[in-house]
Amino acid sequence: MNDVMYKLFFVGLGGFAGSVLRYLASGWVQDLSGSIGFPYGTLAVNLAGCFVIGFLSHLADVRGVFSSDTRAFVFVGVLGGFTTFSTFGNETMNLFRDGEHAFALFNIGSHILLGLFFVWLGRSLAYLLWR
Fold first, then answer.
1. How far is CA 125 from CA 68, 110, 117, 121, in A?
2. Alpha carbon distance 12, 65 (integer Å)
3. Are 3 and 69 in contact (CB under 8 A)?
């Protein structure tokens, strides 16, 4: 198996594990909250993912504790499957850390505003096509 296929396999395996963990963790937290009006499970998963990626990215950047294959498995696979919000948070913090404040703010605004716009756009298109 070549290097690209090897990485894709481990990213996929990590993504599977992260997605299963997200499903279990968010459901558990949502059940604990007893709420049907607010997505506490999703909030908990996003915050946990942000904490974990912050902790592990520091170890990766400062201590060099992860090989590139392990980074692909953990950061892209497991954490990407668990929540992409953690990647968004980590990339934004990296921009702030690197002094790219305008890009960091643009990243925040564009993800939130454009993300909401594209959800609305997708729902509107589906409504128009299948009403």
1. 40, 21, 12, 6
2. 22
3. no
Q: N- to C-terminal Cα distance for the chain?
A: 48
Mean pLDDT, to the nearest integer, of 25-43?
Answer: 93
Distance CA 8, CA 129 (A): 36
Handedness of CA 24, 26, 31, 36 (dihedral sign): negative
Domain ranges of the chain: 3-98, 104-131
Calculate the alpha carbon distances from 31 to 17, 21, 22, 106, 130 in Å: 21, 15, 14, 35, 33
Kindly calculate the radius of gyration of the chain based on its CA atoms and give it in whole angstroms. Answer: 17
Indicate the DSSP class of residue 35.
-
User: What is the crossing angle of helices 85-97 and 101-109, to 10°?
Assistant: 160
Q: How far apart are CA 90 and CA 50, in angstroms?
A: 7
Whether the predicted model's global pTM rises above the 0.90 cut: no
Q: Tell me: the pLDDT tens digits for 69-125?
A: 999 999 999 999 999 898 899 999 999 999 999 999 999 999 999 999 999 999 999
Distance, CA of 90 to CA of 68 (rounded, Å): 17
